[in-house]
Design a protein that fits this description.
Length: 497
C-alpha cells in the first residue's frame, strides 16, 4: 500500500523521488526502546506552511547531519523531511527560505538526546531561549527566527499498514480525514485503525478518554464506518437525563403514562433502532439504570416502554463513553461493552498540536468571520492559510492541556481577542507564565560552548575516514572543515586534504 503523496495543490516531492516503503528509509540502528526513533517534527514554517506535520529522521547515535536550505554538499549527511503515513514515507523537497543558511544547524545524535549547534546566520532559540548550542530532549522546541519551528520528539519508526481503514478515507496530509479525525502522529493513526476495526465488528463499545479528546467524534466515526451508517445516530449525555425520568428517556413511555394527556415517548433506544446510540458520560448513570440496560444488550435489543405490558426490540448498537475509570461502571454492564478504545491525549501526540490549531482557526473563521476572518489568508491556489505567529505554536507545544482540544481552542480564542494585528500571538497568560518561570515548564537550555577536540581525537577522527577533513569535522561536531583545519594547524597535524 502506498500513500497518496503530495496533493496537486502542494509542491511536488524532490525530483526523481517516490513514495518509499518504510524499509527503504535508513532506520537501521535508530530504533530504540519500544521501536521509537528520534525525529524533528515541522511545527511552523514561514515559507512552506503546507509542510507542517512532516518529520525528519535523525542520524544514528554518534553520527551527525546538517539542516539547512537547499541540497548542500554531495558528501554531506543532510536532514530530509518526510510525510510518514501507514507503511510508507513520502520524501519532501529540500527546505526553502531565504533566511536559512545552506548549513544552518549541525545535529549530533547522542544516547541522552541530540546536540544542536548553530552554524548558520539565522538566530537559534531552544524552548524560547536564544543559544548557540544545546542538548535537545523530547518535548523541546527549536526555533530558527522567522523561518522554522521544530519539535524534537521520539515516535514509532513504523506505522503499520492499515488493514481496516481504506486509503480513500485518509484525506490530504495534515487535513481532517473523511470522518473528521485530524493528525499525522503514530498515535492518531493507531486510533483510526482501532475505530475502523470496532466499526466493522458487531459488538457494543466503550470509549475511554479525558475531557476534550473527542469521544463523540470517535463515536460518529464508528457509526459512519459501520453497516449502520444509513441509520440514525442518536447521541445524549447521560448527565442531562433528569433524575426520576431516566428510564422514560432511555426506553420511552406509552401514551397517557403516567398521567392522562401525556404524549407517547419513543425513548432513545427506540429512536436508535437500526443505528447507533451514543451515551456520553455513561458512568454517571445510577447503578440501577445501568442494570436496566443489561437485558437490552443481552436479549437481541429487548426492552419495555414504561406503561406497556408488551416488550419491544431495538436493533441498535450502544457506544458508551466516559472520562472516569471503567471500574466506575456496573461490572456486568462493563462486561457487555466488549470493544474498548482509549482515546489519545494531546500530551501523547504533541506533534499534532500545530495541525489542530490550524484546523480550529480555520473553523473559527468560517463560523465567526467578523472576528476570526482577519487571521486567515487565501493562497494563490485558493487554499486558506492560517496566520499564526510562531510564538503561539511554540508555547502551545510546551503547554499542558488537561482538557485537551477544548483547552487549546479556548487559548486560541483568548489569543485572537488580544491580537493587535492579523497574526495570532501567544495569549497573555502563556507569556506571563513563562516570565514567572512556571513550575513544570520545560527549562530553556543554557548556551554552552562546544568542547574542543584534543589532538588525539582529531588524529583518530581523520584515520577513521581515510583523512577526509570534511567528514572528520562533521564526526567531531565542528561547524565546518575550516574549523578543523585551524585545530590541525594548532596541534601540528598534517592532513590528507
Amino acid at each position: 500500500m502506498t500513500t497518496t503523496g503530495y496533493s496537486p495543490c502542494h509542491p511536488r516531492p524532490m525530483p526523481g523521488s517516490t513514495t518509499l516503503p518504510v524499509s527503504s528509509v535508513a532506520l537501521s540502528g535508530r530504533v530504540g526502546d519500544g521501536g521509537e526513533i528520534p525525529v524533528l517534527a515541522l511545527a511552523w514554517s514561514a515559507k512552506e506552511p503546507y509542510r507542517v506535520g512532516e518529520i525528519a529522521v535523525l542520524a544514528p547515535v554518534g553520527e551527525s547531519q546538517v539542516l539547512g536550505r537547499g541540497e548542500g554538499e554531495s558528501d554531506e549527511a543532510r536532514t530530509r523531511f518526510y510525510r510518514q503515513r501507514p507503511a510508507t514515507f513520502t520524501p519532501g523537497p529540500a527546505l526553502e527560505g531565504d533566511g536559512l543558511s545552506r548549513r544552518q544547524l549541525l545535529l549530533t545524535t547522542q544516547e541522552d538526546g541530540v546536540v544542536v549547534e548553530s552554524i548558520g546566520r539565522c538566530e537559534l532559540q531552544v524552548n524560547g531561549a536564544r543559544c548557540e548550542r544545546a542538548v535537545l530532549h523530547p518535548g523541546d522546541t527549536l526555533y530558527l527566527r522567522r523561518q522554522l519551528l521544530l519539535l524534537f520528539t521520539r515516535r514509532a519508526a513504523f506505522i503499520p499498514k492499515s488493514r481496516h481503514l481504506p486509503p480513500s478515507s485518509w484525506g490530504e496530509f495534515g487535513e481532517s480525514d473523511k470522518h473528521g479525525i485530524l493528525g499525522e502522529s503514530p498515535a492518531t493513526w493507531q486510533l483510526r485503525e482501532q475505530l475502523a476495526f470496532v466499526a466493522k465488528s458487531a459488538t457494543h463499545a466503550l470509549l475511554l478518554g479525558a475531557s476534550g479528546t473527542g469521544k463523540e467524534l470517535a463515536a460518529r466515526a464508528i457509526h459512519a464506518m459501520s453497516n449502520r451508517a444509513s441509520k440514525p445516530f442518536v447521541a445524549r449525555n447521560a448527565t442531562t437525563l433528569p433524575a426520576g425520568l431516566i428510564d422514560a428517556e432511555l426506553f420511552g413511555s406509552a401514551k397517557n403514562y403516567p398521567n392522562a394527556g401525556m404524549p407517547e415517548r419513543p425513548g432513545l433506544v427506540g429512536q436508535a433502532d437500526g443505528g447507533t446510540l451514543f451515551l456520553d458520560e455513561i458512568a454517571e448513570l445510577p447503578l440501577e439504570q445501568q442494570g436496566h440496560l443489561l437485558r437490552l444488550l443481552d436479549m437481541g435489543g429487548e426492552y419495555q416502554r414504561l406503561g406497556e405490558a408488551t416488550t419491544r426490540r431495538s436493533d441498535m448498537r450502544l457506544v458508551g463513553a466516559t472520562n472516569r475509570d471503567p471500574a466506575a461502571l456496573k461490572h456486568d454492564l462493563r462486561a457487555r461493552l466488549t470493544s474498548v478504545v482509549e482515546l489519545t491525549t494531546l500530551a501523547s501526540r504533541r506533534e499534532d498540536i500545530p495541525l489542530l490549531a490550524r484546523h480550529l482557526l480555520l473553523r473559527a473563521a468560517k463560523q465567526s468571520p467578523e472576528v476570526a476572518g482577519r487571521f486567515v489568508d487565501e493562497t494563490a491556489t485558493g487554499r486558506p492559510l492560517a496566520r499564526f505567529a510562531p510564538a503561539f505554536i511554540d508555547f502551545a507545544l510546551r503547554q499542558e492541556f488537561p482538557a485537551n482540544t477544548r483547552q487549546l481552542e479556548a487559548a486560541l480564542w483568548k489569543a485572537m481577542s488580544e491580537a493587535p494585528d492579523r497574526d495570532v500571538l501567544a495569549p497573555s497568560e502563556w507569556r506571563s507564565e513563562a516570565t514567572a518561570g512556571r513550575p513544570g515548564a520545560p527549562a530553556a537550555v543554557a548556551p554552552r560552548p562546544p568542547a574542543e577536540p584534543t589532538a588525539d581525537e582529531i588524529r583518530a577522527a581523520l584515520a577513521s575516514v581515510g583523512g577526509s577533513v570534511g567528514k572528520a569535522a562533521r564526526n567531531l561536531g565542528l561547524s565546518s572543515r575550516f574549523a578543523l583545519y585551524r585545530l590541525m594547524k594548532k596541534h601540528g597535524i598534517e592532513g590528507a586534504e
